[in-house]
Automatic annotation (TrEMBL):
It holds the Pfam family Resolvase. GO terms for biological process: DNA integration. The active site is at 18 (o-(5'-phospho-dna)-serine intermediate). Keywords: DNA integration, DNA recombination, DNA-binding. This is Resolvase-like protein. The keyword Transmembrane does not apply. Residues 10-89 form the Resolvase/invertase-type recombinase catalytic domain.
Amino acid sequence: MANTKPINKTATIYVRVSTEEQAREGYSIPAQIEVLSQYCRLYNINIYKVYKDLGISGKPTANRHDLQQLLEDSEKGLLESFVTAYVTT
């Protein structure tokens, strides 16, 4: 990772776990939030909000309440950017 830190950036965090296996393998919601929060601290990114969908399959996205809320907030101009982790097992 680069040493350059963005100044006054704001991002939202989006996390999701769809299976118990993912949670057991270290991809739990708290683990994802911790890793992404560390990333934000490293790059001096303020966290606006954390969106999370628990136990919901990746498709269809209409069933992912917090993802839909994130998209609505983005359309309203409330979000500058977001960070997420890609997890596959």
